[in-house]
Amino acid sequence: MSLEQEINESNAYYLAHNIAVIHKKPTPVQLVKVDYPKRSAAVIKEAYFRRPSTTDYNGVYRGYYLDFDAKETNNKVSFPLKNFHEHQIEHLRACVQQGGVCFAFLKFSHTNQLFLLPASKLFAYWDEQDSGGRKSIPLKNIEQDGYQITYQFNPLIPYIDAVDRLIEDLGV
Amino acid sequence: MSLEQEINESNAYYLAHNIAVIHKKPTPVQLVKVDYPKRSAAVIKEAYFRRPSTTDYNGVYRGYYLDFDAKETNNKVSFPLKNFHEHQIEHLRACVQQGGVCFAFLKFSHTNQLFLLPASKLFAYWDEQDSGGRKSIPLKNIEQDGYQITYQFNPLIPYIDAVDRLIEDLGV
Ligand SMILES: [Mg+2]
Ligand SMILES: [Mg+2]
């Protein structure tokens, strides 16, 4: 299962149990040609993927606005920043400015290690790149700056527990 | 310009001026056939529209999670409830339960009258339908229960002013 599917499954659990309402946003497409046959569903015959203007996930939990993107890497000792796009960082910055609880969901695929990295920490690594900083975030820094999440059953990824710790540490 | 375009334009203004971060969610599509030609963008050759599981708009404003759908009618004296779908109402209920600030954005096209109707009021009309209630919300009730919004320039629809009043009245 991809990280996205794992998160979607966890979100379905949280929704069904009235714990949080978090949804993945659909991928935006530019429609070019759509057929409307009589007596059956519209068929999209030509369309293109558009670049999203936001992150993949957002929603509401205990009155907090949550916003995040999820990324996986095959790397073992660091998380490459090229997994993020400028527009995602800009979107997260705008949400943080409005008081949202924002983070990145990082997975090291080889070891199945999962972390929730606060947006503020992500911004620091992102901005350092331009001033000669590293192009990736060392795993040991993620272990220190982030909140590790352990797979379990129902939900598969209990990331709301890490969100609780983040909210507490943010003091919001 | 459609109501959706008008709201999108207003959201672009709010985003550019660091006032609020509200986006329309893309329409979900079920991909069936996608071509990946060499050296050019992927082309979607067959796809179908899926029913969204949420409302169209959400985002963050002053730490509040906002969630709403926008609807227009050609009716003159009432707003038909058939413009709403069960899954949208259920989604709004779940968001309200999590402390979100939720509403419907209603437009009477003939008169260009715009209202923000709090979700709690919408639920009341929705639920009454099943027990022999009206199938539409009278304009005079919307005038009383909702917040009227007047078109202006920049933003075209200054709905965040109405959100401020709603937040104040909700006492959250
Ligand atoms: Mg992603
Ligand atoms: Mg709509």
UniProtKB/TrEMBL annotation, chains A, B:
One of its GO terms (molecular function) is magnesium ion binding. Its main location: cytoplasm. One of its GO terms (biological process) is chromosome segregation. Its EC number is 3.1.21.10. It catalyses: Endonucleolytic cleavage at a junction such as a reciprocal single-stranded crossover between two homologous DNA duplexes (Holliday junction). Belongs to the RecU family. This is Holliday junction resolvase RecU. InterPro entries: Resolv_RecU, Restrct_endonuc-II-like, tRNA_endonuc-like_dom_sf. Keywords: Cytoplasm, DNA damage, DNA recombination, DNA repair, Endonuclease, Hydrolase, Magnesium, Metal-binding, Nuclease. Endonuclease that resolves Holliday junction intermediates in genetic recombination. Cleaves mobile four-strand junctions by introducing symmetrical nicks in paired strands. Promotes annealing of linear ssDNA with homologous dsDNA. Required for DNA repair, homologous recombination and chromosome segregation. It is found in: Cytoplasm. Its cofactor is Mg(2+). Binds 1 Mg(2+) ion per subunit. The record marks K71 as: Transition state stabilizer. The keyword Hydrolase applies. GO terms for cellular component: cytoplasm. The keyword Cell membrane does not apply. Mg(2+) binds at T54, D56, D69, Q88. CDD domains: RecU-like. It is an enzyme of class 3 (hydrolase).
